Every structure is written in structure tokens, then in C-alpha cells.
Amino acid sequence: MAADSEAHPTRVAVIIFRHTMRHIPEYLLVQDTSTAMRVWQLLVGDVAPEMNPKETARWTVEHVAGFRVHGDVASADYRYNLPLWGSAILQPDAQAIPDYPAAGFEAAYMVEVGPQDGDPQIRDPRYGAFRWVSVIDAVSMLRYPEHVEALMQVSSKVDASGSQI
Fold this sequence. Notes:
The chain is an alpha+beta fold and 165 residues long. It has helices at residues 53-64, 135-141, 145-155, and strands at 11-19, 25-32, 40-41, 43-46, 74-81, 105-112, 127-133.
């Protein structure tokens, strides 16, 4: 679902991928432990009104996942409205979780890391686990259809032999 391209996203979803030694792409999924369901999702970061969404994506990769960005942070050319389909609907007396805005939209970005970078060093208590998975496994694990669509958009751009690292 496309949103107004001039509008400032409320949040970014970052699709972090790497190529294995056999040149097969793997994608990073994180498990959100802030809810009882412990859903698998993409790494997300809120965009402050004064921040550039691309820089927010870079900051999320470096400071939340603990990876050094070697190349470019690229737009996945995919945006969708928030809240995500299937996410919890808050009751009027419930408190909102600051990292999960109820309105606005999320823009997807993609970042390649090298296999030499190892595993993420997650620095956000909201995320309890991570997995490197194939696109097929990611599609079956991701909770939100919007994240599946964003990942499919990126996977169509990631050529198994096209590693930049």
C-alpha cells in the first residue's frame, strides 16, 4: 500500500540482509517480547519529527542491532499505514506503547551487512531473540502482512550473487 511519498513516516522498518558463503540471501527477523504473543517481525524504529527517515534506519541498524553499516541504506520503495494489520488494538483506558504509534505510516528500508559482521547485538529490551532466515522461512514466520510485503519487495531486489560487501 503506497502512502503519500512526500509525507514524513512515523516509523521505519529495516530489512537487514546478508549473503551466506554460498551467496544465498538471509534476512534478520527479531522477536518482539513486549507482547504476550512474542511475534516475529522486522526491526523497527520511530522517526522523530526532525529526523530524516533514512538516517533513522541507519541509526536503528547501528544502535539497536549493533551492526556497522558498510554501504548505503536504501529505500525499499514500500510504505504502509499504521497500525499494522493484526496488531493489538488498545482499549481507551490502556496505555500506548511509545514505539508502536497508532497512526501514520511505516516506510521500509534495506541494509546489507557482511557475513563477517556476525550476529546482531540487540540493544533493545523489546526484542528477545533474533534469527537469520531464508525468504521462505521469513514469510512463514512474520506476523504482519505488511512486513511480509516489504520483505518480498526487498527480496525481489536482492540478487543472490549481487552482494555489495
